[in-house]
Structure formats: structure tokens, C-alpha cells
Predict the 3D structure of the following.
Amino acid sequence: MYYAPEAPGRLAMAPPAGAQQLIILLHGVGSNPASLLDMAEAFRRVWPGAAIAIPAGLQPFDAGAGMAQHQQQWFSVRGVTEDNRYERVAAVMPAFISLIRSIQETTKVPPADTVLAGFSQGAIMALEAVKAEDGLAGRVMAFSGRYAQLPEKAPEHTSIGLYHGDQDEVMPVQVAQAAFDRLHELGGDVTLDIAHGVGHQPHPVLVAEAIDRLQKQLPARLWKKALGGPPR
């Protein structure tokens, strides 16, 4: 599903023509694409010509009371533990990467110009996807997220931004700090922004910070390419 710039608050089936940038928003567990319309609108105001895709999770939500319709998940959290979370993510990762590739092919926007912006479980999928396939997207914006398993190698072709509230009781801010510390230690291109007094949500303050970084921060790989390139 694609956000329709001409009809704020609605989802359309066709992406805009000639988009130079693709922003894929990934919702949390037990939710749906409509939950990220406010974030989509914030991005649209800054990049009106971008394709903004909000796909639904790969599976129906299976862990809620009544399991309401139109609630989706990327992987099941029923009985999830620190020991089995990574296995669950790995099991759905091929289908997830295929989904991202299909959106890139439909919009004709290459991976380097793709942003994966995930909230909560969507952030887990975004972080783990570029760990599994470096360069699947040029940037990852992980809101209130974490790794299922901390990386052993930093991505070379993806910049990672971590955005977290210090009052998050679902995914404590320590998991974001641990991700930042590991990626920094590995030499990764990573930033961490923490909002004080914010809980488990893609808070407008964090979204604004992510947009500001996307506007102003040149990825480290491009700096290295410029500095190491031949003189003109």
C-alpha cells in the first residue's frame, strides 16, 4: 500500500510516478499500515515527490485478545523469549526481503535511495534485514526498536539511526543503547537519539529528529567515497 499525497489520511494502490526516493514505513506488532499515517504525512511534507510505502505485516496477529481483524505482525510474539526471538525473525526474513525488493522494483527506486523506517517490531525487521543483506536500504530509521540478536559486523552500505524514548517500558532504552554501542564499536555509521519523557511510540519529536538527520546528515560511506576519490 502507498501513501497518497493527494489524499492525506488515505492509502492508495499505486505509487507516484518518477519518485527519486522510497520511504518504507513498517508498523509494529498487532497493528496495521493506518497506524503510521501521521508519520507518512510528516515525511510527505518534506519530500512530496517520494514514494511512501506502508506494507502490512506478513502474518495475521496471533497474540491478542480476540485477535481483531486488520491487525498484523511480522513474526509471532506468542511465547517469544530472548532465546527464540532471533529464530522467529530469521524464519520470515526471506519473505520480508522479497517484499522490500518488490516495492523497490515497483517504484523503480534503487536500494541506495530507500529508507526503511520501522516502529517496534517493524524496527526489528528493518535492523535485522540490513544485517542479513547489507545495502538492502541506504538508511534504516529504527523507532523504539532493537536487534533480535546484536550484529557481529556493521553494515558498510547502510546508515542506521536509532530513535527511542527514555520511558519506554516495552523495549527499554537500554536495548537501543546496546545496539548503538555495538555498531559504534564495529565502526558502523550509526546515531542514537533519545527523547526524554517519551514511552513506546513513534513520537513526533523523534520523527522530526529523524527527518532532520535525513535532510542534513551525509552517510559516512559517501564521505569516505568523496575523500578517497580521484582529484578533479
In short: The chain has one domain: 2-228. The radius of gyration is 17 Å. Strands lie at 2-3, 11-12, 22-26, 51-53, 59-60, 72-73, 114-119, 139-143, 159-165, 190-195.
